[in-house]
């Protein structure tokens, strides 16, 4: 194992199909039109010296080091900015070029401190490399570098430093911030020797608009921008390619290591989801893996009021199996169940559902998708026949109109958000349907053509109104519909949407969106070229979540925006492996590959391999489990990597359900909130400590590779195996690759997947089988998975969660860039500098009416409960709407949310809660008592050493 | 949760399902609702809604009542 050095071609790859042949240093070379001479030379193995060029950004031509000679042309043009031409004859190394380059380097070095031996970039410095490459032996202008301004080190960012004295003003950081990240936080201030990189208006990095994605650090050729971990530890000596364990984008990284210590995570250029980019979480927020609060030993206790007692793995597993068996003997086979983790690997998830179906003998298995994208699964399977998005992320590069619904990619899916922004800067149009004025509505170099700030809960009405315009104005793609969809169902649907009660004018009042904006947005989506829909939890987490997904699917079919790059229906999945968890059979009614448990043939396949009969009835969903627990018939729960007490709605009800159980087993990294009600704690492993695969939002299956030994002694898949065997259900796997082989045997859409294939191809998108041996980037190309696309009538049904005099505002919840889900990981990193607490966003008008000041404590009350947090007055939310995040357990935002849920899937209605807001003095009595209970529950009994 | 509250919740959920399928009309909707309950509700929940119907079925929307009746017939046929 060694450090992976990716080739830097100097300039980006040209996408042209036209090829150009030229001669470089006497060799003939054929490359796509638009390729730079620098890149063409590198592709044949000749590295032209360079400093300001790197292939993550466009050529700039400022350093004058990459000069070449071209036959028939005067002068020495820069090879980075000069495109290849047919018949061109290039020389990359001549006496004149050598002399010129040496002169350029001499000037650079004369203005650069020569503290190479103690510099953090020693061994990883392009300036040092180029000095060597051009044979620099002398600097006639002195070595002090005193001309360069040095306003001092900026250490404000928690993860990297900015040392202006090391800066060569190549602008790579500025361009990376603009072109790759799209934030435009950096610029070059001053001129000549006074030139200096400036975050914002000459602010500190932390105080500027910088989002800490790390693109500038990655682009920096010197030690000007350096990871603090590199400064502290030193240069890495080997690296391993693995996949990020944060959001559903699934960025691949090089984990750069020194021994078993992570030095840094560097985005991998060949990663097909992230294409070499990263966000603050994946790039920097991995320190939770070694946080002091991690639990590394198994623990048990008789009662949830007892302190924890550390025990051996053997005792913990035997105790758990014995308790589950006791409960089943006393209360029946159906009295226990489990929850698979969307943060764990496919293999681990598969094993947990296998344990429940085969070992527990029931189908009481569910996963966190219940509370996020279960309506996506239902809605897309009904209309298209498959429970996943239709495109790959590269597809956005071909989109002309992007319809973004209930998603905030720059915060929740930031790397994809950057790719989307890049396409928008290239000219694609954007329509945003969201109650909040998310950043994409208007930010540097991006402005939505239309923002439809609909009232929470009216998605279906507005989408049907968009369809009304498409149908009544003759904008439907009749050719596509006739060929690809059920024509009779289309006609029924078209008659429904065309009804005047679904017109924008009729919907305007209830949705709060001007009719003319709905009409204009519909026209743009239907006629603007390739129309792509991206959506998030603002679509699914409603009582009509599944209906909204179907309305989206209808709209895409009606306009023919399915089955090719640039179009499609794209759910942005929340957690790193929530797609995979669903694929692996984590729902109570489905085996892996979305096949219903009632299917005799499917069940027989599993029964033959697993050697046990399987229940043909659907099991309990998470909310049903909790209801059953409160009813006294559900008594035991195995929870892998999920914190339902913090993440699920109506916290008091979740707590009551958990408290009513006799054995709650939590397998996690930390004593999370659910563990306050647990009787067994099994310490899990981070993604750095195990092998496996994750599947991202574009159905891409990617390897997770172990870079260090498990700190608790077992990977999560090994814990499940031990538990299964202790329950008397035999499991034997030596490596996760064997689990994947079993998944492939049992799951048609994974039939062609193996670790060997993933090694060879890097990643594949399911379906991957004999029909698509290299996977499927775009689905439904020639026909829908279900055959004919199915239009569904989407009648708007108002939620029963209504505002009124007592609760006049609507609360909606969501995520922020620096934090992730319940914050268990990100709260244990330096990311808390950006978001140390959940705040309540409230419009100035609503704040003024209530006498609420910015930063003041306010009480947030609903019919379910009340909590207190501090206010943030902002016009990002519309009047009448308030917003908060749920990253901090102290806030307990879900005390307020209700148990209303999606009609088809029971996905909670997080996005619509009627609330009142009023000034308060601080945390509520309930928050204080919760905090006290949590602290008491986390006591760990000290180990008493036996006397000699 | 008391059994009354459990029943209320099942009735509420079943009526929610009914509201979606109502657009398919009186001829098709009951079968579609019954199929949804069969595919996605666990046996205990199905038994609960059938028991509620047998106890008078208070609160069930007409299409849902017919769907639960169909469910009851399927269950008793086994």
Protein described:
The complex is a heterodimer of chains A (about 950) and B (about 80). By secondary structure, chain A is of the alpha/beta class. Chain A folds into five domains: about 1-95, Ubiquitin-like (UB roll), CATH 3.10.20.740; about 160-290, Alpha-Beta Plaits, CATH 3.30.70.20; about 300-365 and about 580-765, Rossmann fold; about 375-570, Dimethylsulfoxide Reductase, domain 2 (3-Layer(aba) Sandwich), CATH 3.40.228; about 810-935, Barwin-like endoglucanases (Beta Barrel). Chain A is about 30% helix and about 15% strand. Chain A has a seven-stranded mixed beta sheet. In chain A, strand 1 (about 20-25) and strand 2 form a beta hairpin. The longest helix of chain A has 19 residues, at about 315-330. The relative contact order of chain A is 0.11. Chain B is an all-alpha fold. Chain B is about 80% helix and about 0% strand. Chain B is built from four helices and no strands. In chain B, helix 3 crosses helix 4. Chains A and B meet through helix 22 of A and helix 1, helix 2 and helix 3 of B.
**Strand fraction band of chain A?**
15-25%
* Widest beta sheet: strand line-up of chain A: 13-12-27-26-25-14-15
The number of E-state strands of chain A comes to: 36
Number of domains of chain A: 5
Quaternary organisation of the protein chains: heterodimer
Order of helices and strands of chain B: HHHH
User: Averaging pLDDT over every residue of chain A, what do you get?
Assistant: 95
Low-pLDDT residue spans of chain B: none
